[in-house]
Every structure is written in C-alpha cells, then in structure tokens.
C-alpha cells in the first residue's frame, strides 16, 4: 500500500502488506477477489504459496487457473470435485461411441442388403435383420458410475475390433 498501488486480492483478503515480490500478485489481481477467496478456502493460502514457489515462473499462471478450476469444482461437488466432471464426460464419450458403433453397424447392414457380396449365400442375408448391437447396454453404463472407465475401455476395444475387422464380423453370423 505504501507505494500507492492497491494490494493484490490475496494480500487484501489476508490483511497483509503486498510486497513488491508478492508471489500472488501477478495471478490474483485486486479486481477479482473471488478467484483468490475460493482457492484460499479449498487449498489454503500457504499451500497455494508453496505450490507456486515450487514451480518455474512460466508455469505458475497455468497452475493458478488449474487450482481455481479445481477449487470451484470442489465447492460445487464436495465429493467428486473435478473427477465428477471427468466421469460425466467419459460417460458421454462411451455412450456416443456406442451410438456410433450401432449406427456404423446399421450402415453396414444396409450396404450389405443393397449390394450382396456374390460369394456369400443368400440365406445369410435373411439372418441379418437383427442387429448384434443392443442399446439396452447404455443404461447400465450410465448407472455404473464406478466401472465407467473399465466399461469404456472394454467397449472401445470390443467395438473397434468388430468395426475394424469386417471378415471377423461376417464370420459371427455364419
Ligand atoms: Zn500480494
């Protein structure tokens, strides 16, 4: 305060003098007091200070925005924090990949009905009206929060092996 400039948001909240080399000052300007308040609430000012001191200066701005994001997520969701957002998005990814696999399987079925492969017997075509993929799996993935990643991984590997190997896929139906 002695120099005439206002203290940074951190020093203002902690009611201390904002030194010239204040570690918070570049990242917590006085016009955004909430940014420091929430980080202080979740991590504690001294922990934030220690974390910033351990980092090279060029990485500190990224670390601060990460801490602010995590603190906001932790306040919104005290149990899962930003893991809640990650799991939600992973769920969405696996559901969309399943929809994509179903759509690709349907496209393949339609293509095979329109352009029958000459070497295949025609009776094979009649057994294809039922898709091997079932959308009933999507609910269990949705509910099974903890196994999400595992299901996602197993689904991704199984769908890619089916979709990338049409010969294998045909052999399933013979
Ligand atoms: Zn300061």
TrEMBL record:
InterPro entries: LOB. Residues 121-140 are annotated as: Disordered. It holds the Pfam family LOB. PROSITE patterns: LOB. Residues 6-107 form the LOB domain. Belongs to the LOB domain-containing protein family. PANTHER family: LOB DOMAIN-CONTAINING PROTEIN 12 (PTHR31301:SF15), LOB DOMAIN-CONTAINING PROTEIN 4-RELATED (PTHR31301). This is LOB domain-containing protein.
């Amino acid at each position: 305060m002695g120099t005439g400039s206002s203290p940074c948001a951190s020093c203002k909240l902690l009611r201390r003098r904002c030194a010239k080399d204040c570690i918070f000052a570049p990242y917590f300007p006085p016009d955004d007091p909430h940014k420091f308040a929430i980080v202080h609430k979740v991590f504690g000012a001294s922990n934030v200070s220690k974390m910033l001191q351990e980092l090279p200066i060029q990485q500190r701005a990224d670390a601060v925005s990460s801490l602010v994001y995590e603190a906001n997520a932790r306040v919104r969701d005290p149990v899962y924090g930003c893991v809640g957002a990650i799991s939600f998005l992973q769920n969405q990814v696996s559901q969309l990949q399943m929809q994509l696999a179903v759509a690709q399987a349907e496209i393949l079925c339609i293509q095979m009905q329109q352009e029958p492969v000459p070497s295949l017997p025609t009776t094979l075509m009649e057994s294809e009206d039922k898709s091997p993929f079932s959308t009933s799996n999507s609910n269990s993935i949705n509910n099974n929060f903890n196994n999400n990643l595992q299901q996602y991984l197993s689904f991704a590997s199984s769908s890619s092996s089916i979709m990338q190997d049409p010969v294998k896929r045909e052999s399933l139906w013979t």
